[in-house]
């Protein structure tokens, strides 16, 4: 679970690579700079502070947000228009306007924040706290955060994002800074309870797909979707690069799919591999060559294709792994 927040300033720091695995520093508040993947972003602000909040404090904020309730997060498309776009941003959100809570967080961060940013001086944190809750399969596609301009004529505005992580122990769900052309150079920030990520709004990043492990309202395995899709490919046929969509059972049970099951019924043909696609370099694509009786299992939101069949005939069966919320 994440708490997203904004503030008004910071200083340029020398980059230091944040590795995929972090150490908890025994309760000591510790700062680590984040290496940014694009040369164009060299010198821009991004750093992590560990142990800003204790686990108990994080749990209290989680419980408060659950009491207030969550609704689907929307996207600001301009002119204050908010649109639900679950193919781009898919999570729950709870907005709490609380100056006291914001000030508690600010007091712990202030020593790490520069007093000025461009021609602006540091004021504090935006009191609008946006609690974000991700379920397995949810994500926030690559984006840059927008500036907030206070509408009271004071001239206050935000330049920097504050992201407080309220829990850990799940799989996936990293905040990932995106390389413009090579996904292998992306930089992942793996959440730790009480950790704060601080970065300039205008840095390209994503909330990577959560695979499993949210503490509350986890999904549990139900079985397979009974709708079996048999696919037959003739020479010259293919399925272009795509991501599989989630299936939501329409009976109100809350059951939905997150994982694809692909059973291969024959082999001996030429071409027709299931290929996972590199975003910028086809030489790095990964081909899965079918064998009779083989099953390929992968999460829906992986870019892949059914490569062109050159000769022979290919048969497969596609279905989905279904889950339901544990509280259903």
Automatic annotation (TrEMBL):
SMART domains: P4Hc. It holds the Pfam family 2OG-FeII_Oxy_3. GO terms for cellular component: endoplasmic reticulum. Residues 44-222 form the Prolyl 4-hydroxylase alpha subunit domain. GO terms for molecular function: iron ion binding; L-ascorbic acid binding; procollagen-proline 4-dioxygenase activity. It comes from the Eukaryota. Its cofactor is L-ascorbate. The keyword Transferase does not apply. The keyword Glycoprotein does not apply. Keywords: Dioxygenase, Iron, Metal-binding, Oxidoreductase, Vitamin C. This is Prolyl 4-hydroxylase alpha subunit domain-containing protein.
């Amino acid at each position: 679970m994440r708490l997203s927040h904004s503030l008004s300033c910071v200083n340029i720091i020398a980059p230091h690579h944040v590795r995929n695995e972090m150490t908890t520093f025994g309760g000591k508040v510790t700062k680590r700079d984040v290496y940014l993947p694009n040369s164009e972003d060299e010198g821009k602000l991004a750093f992590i502070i560990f142990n800003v909040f204790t686990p108990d404090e994080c749990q209290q904020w989680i419980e408060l947000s659950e009491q207030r309730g969550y609704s689907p997060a929307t996207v600001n498309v301009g002119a204050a228009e908010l649109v639900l776009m679950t193919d781009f941003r898919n999570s729950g959100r709870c907005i709490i306007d609380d100056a006291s809570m914001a000030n508690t967080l600010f007091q712990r961060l202030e020593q790490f924040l520069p007093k000025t940013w461009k021609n602006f001086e540091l004021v504090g944190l935006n009191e609008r706290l946006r609690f974000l809750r991700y379920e397995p399969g949810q994500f926030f596609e690559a984006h840059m955060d927008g500036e907030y301009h206070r509408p009271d004529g004071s001239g206050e505005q935000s330049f920097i994002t504050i992201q407080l992580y309220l829990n850990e122990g799940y799989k996936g769900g990293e905040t990932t800074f995106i390389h413009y052309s090579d996904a292998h150079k992306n930089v992942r920030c793996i959440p730790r309870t009480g950790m704060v990520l601080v970065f300039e709004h205008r840095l390209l990043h994503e909330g990577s797909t959560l695979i499993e492990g949210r503490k509350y309202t986890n999904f549990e395995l139900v079985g397979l979707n009974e709708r079996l899709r048999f696919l037959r490919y003739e020479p010259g046929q293919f399925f272009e690069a795509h991501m599989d969509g989630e299936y939501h059972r329409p009976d109100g049970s809350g059951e939905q799919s997150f994982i694809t099951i692909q059973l291969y019924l024959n082999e001996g043909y030429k071409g027709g591999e299931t290929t996972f696609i590199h975003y910028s370099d086809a030489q790095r694509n990964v081909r899965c060559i079918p064998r009779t009786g083989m099953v390929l299992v992968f999460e829906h939101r992986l870019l892949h294709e059914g490569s062109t069949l050159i000769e022979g005939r290919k048969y497969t069966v596609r279905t989905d792994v279904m889950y339901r919320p544990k509280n259903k």
